[in-house]
Amino acid sequence: MQVRGMWATGLLAVVIGVGSVVLWQRSSTETSVSGPQGVNQETKGWGFIGGPKDTAASAAAASAQVRSPDQVRVRLFKEGSFAGTEPAGNWCVSDQKLKPCPELRSRFEYYVLGLGEVTIEEIRGLIQDEAKRANGDALAAQIMAVWDKYWQVRTYAWRHKFIQADRSTWMPVFEEQRAVRRQLLGQPWAEAFFKEDEQHFQEYYAQLESGLPPPPDPGEPVPQMAPGKDPAAVRAERVARYGEAAANRLDKADAEWADWERRLNAAKTEWDRLQKAANLSDVQRKAEMSAYIKSNFAADEQLRVQALLHL
Q: Is the per-residue pLDDT at 268 higher than 50?
């Protein structure tokens, strides 16, 4: 399933320090449009260091009719690159309150990957509509306030120039970013969104400064569990490549993925059973299935399950 590959790629970015930089490079190179100042060859793609202003996309949106969220869903999920995938992260809502957590940044970035197929205004409209459906108007308004600040960070015109080949430029850029993130997002959301990336960058920088060998190439595929593979061998390879802590995070992600697939397969089985129940009407079948989904899936998972089951 395509989303499994996206899961593994994103996870590698989390467990290896430089991986977060490289993942942002891939995202920025594929989705960004340079602003008036252009994108210097040395800075192109380092989305961790900050993306260029998307003035070209904004100009196009101004001259074209903005599509509705439903039209954007068709464009991305049925006709475009989102087909067969599921949104990453979650809305960071618990106890009917929006609370800073890194998963909201993952949710935002999932939708940003549609840039180029749709405009940034249309992406914003889709995020707002999805947030309303999942959490209601009041919480959606709070989520969109965070989005607007986050997009300011993503499109900020940085003063310091990053040159990959000149390590003396790295820390001034990093310190500027760190300060601007907290200024625009506020301390709690900046910490939630970027603390891990910042820590990985500092560790990677310190390792390079120390003269020690660089970490493993993040382009290498993460050793994955699969039928016929020895779990102990996979675990040993992960520890050898990434260290004990990273291997533990990979194990946790495997367990979460396996739990999701188990619950989703059980839901498919239940829906098949209800569809074959001759004593139930269509309305009763859907009502029972809706109750089943609410009992077995978190609020932010329920829309995905309904879509996957074509309810």
A: yes
Q: How far is CA 227 from the centre of its chain?
A: 27
Separation CA 44–CA 59 (nearest Å): 21
For residue 63, what are the CA distances in angstroms to 66, 168, 242? 9, 42, 48
Tell me the mean pLDDT in the region 68-74.
96
Most confident of 57-71, 91-105, 191-205: 91-105
pTM of the model: 0.55
Which residue, 58, 74, 55, 69, is CA-closest to 126?
69
Phi/psi at 302 (5° precision): -65, -40
For residue 171, what are the CA distances in angstroms to 175, 203, 204? 6, 12, 12
pLDDT for 217 equals 59
Enter the tokens of residue 209: 């400064």
Stretch (H or E) spanning 98: strand 97-98
Angle (CA) 26 143 98, round 5°:
115
Contacts of 145 (CB under 8 A, 6+ apart): none
Helix spans in the chain (H): 2-15, 17-31, 55-63, 69-73, 103-112, 120-135, 137-154, 170-185, 187-210, 231-242, 244-275, 282-296, 299-308
Question: In this structure, which amino acid lies at residue 259?
Answer: D
Per-residue confidence band for 232, with pLDDT thresholds at 50, 70 and 90: confident
